[in-house]
Amino acid sequence: MLPLELFKTIVSSTPLVSIDFMVMNDCEQILLGKRINRPAKDYWFVPGGRVLKDESIEEAFIRLLDIELGLTDTVVNFKGVYQHFYEDSFSGDDSTTHYVVLAYKIRYSGVISTLPNEQHADYKWFNLGELLKHERVHIHTKWYFQEHKQAIELQNKFNKLES
Questions:
Q1: Maximum Cα–Cα distance for the chain, whole Å?
Q2: Domains and CATH numbers, the chain
């Protein structure tokens, strides 16, 4: 584990690589947890976490699947690469956070009351329409369920820069 001050410097200086899980049940509902930590504190968000130094993507996937959902095996569908920019960081100081995220859609049929509470205070199944309309579901989570939404928003930003 990195010393806290070194990790703060890294977060404020470089992008982090993470894995997020778009967790679906057999009724096509989406599992979200209410975050208790920065960034995205107090927002509903998908489970996931950082890839650690010297950890392969495959190792991180297996570790996070176990830590976040208690799973050792599941059906996996890679959804794409996303970027998340936050105006805050885990430390609560003035630094921002930038993630490059590998998103995977997975199936889950477990009991949500047994899920860990280190990152999320509560868990809930959302229908797609409810998720997209809910004001406390984080925009980065919504992007996973809006086809090409992040690409469209980035293109609009580039167009504004050119004009």
A1: 52
A2: 4-162 (3.90.79.10)
Closest among 75, 66, 28, 29 to 47, alpha carbons compared = 66
Contact 48, 21 (CB under 8 A): yes
pTM recorded for the entire structure: 0.86
Residue 155 annotated as binding site: no
Residue 48 assigned as binding residue: yes
Query: Peptide bond preceding 39: is omega within 30 degrees of 0, i.e. cis?
Result: yes
- The full length of the chain comes to 163
Residue-wise pLDDT for 104-144, tens only, equals: 999 999 899 999 988 899 999 999 999 999 999 999 999 99
